[in-house]
Amino acid sequence: MVLASGSGSRVGAELNKVYLPLAGRRLVRWSLDAFARLPEFGVLVLVIRPEDEEFAREVVGDLDVDLVHGGASRQGSELCALRHLATRIDAGEVDTVLIHDGARPLASDGLITAVLKAAREFGGAVPGLAADDVVIATEDGTGYGGALDGAVRVQTPQGFLAGPLLAAYEQADREGFIGTDTASCMERFSSLPVHWVPGEERNLKVTYPHDLRVVEHLLRETGLP
Length: 225
Fold this sequence. Notes:
Helices cover 38% and strands 21% of the residues. The protein is an alpha/beta fold. The strands form three sheets. Strands 1, 4, 5, 6, 7, 10, 11 and 12 form an eight-stranded mixed sheet that branches. Strands 2-3 form a two-stranded antiparallel ribbon. Strands 8-9 form a two-stranded antiparallel ribbon. Helix 3 packs across helix 5 and helix 5 packs across helix 6. The chain is globular and about 40 Å long. The model has no long low-confidence stretch (mean pLDDT 89).
């Protein structure tokens, strides 16, 4: 599941940022291609805004991708995609779901497969980098209270067993709970453990205009797949 239903306003473009050009492709196409080339994935879903559908179809091109209209929030968009997959999840055709930001074009094959493997083994998996530069501020704001031990900068893709993931999201919807990310929803409404997988420094998320230049440089430096 690749998420492309946000506006990406901070990048400063009139166009939804996931459709901005990047090294000869649209930004989100890099994310789609990263999953499409791996044989472990049988269904690829792109979650979009309704107003972007025509452009999304053009960007998807000949890839076998299901387009799903997202909701009012990230979690709502994920739930729309899960409901789209519900019949296949119930039938056992989809056993694990990976959720990825369309604005993270540099996730490697190795990272994606590591998350998939860990999700199938433990029930849930989240990639992240140790946040060694995160500290605790003192209450009066005059200094630092020391480093925050165990802090992790969470990335995507995040992976979970499909059945429990769908059940947790339906429960969250009934209770009106909005989590910070997929893992927070699972931690609240599922007993499955969420396993930490080492993330990658180059798995950047495009948020601001200069991020596009950084990502393009990394793509050309390492060779375009």
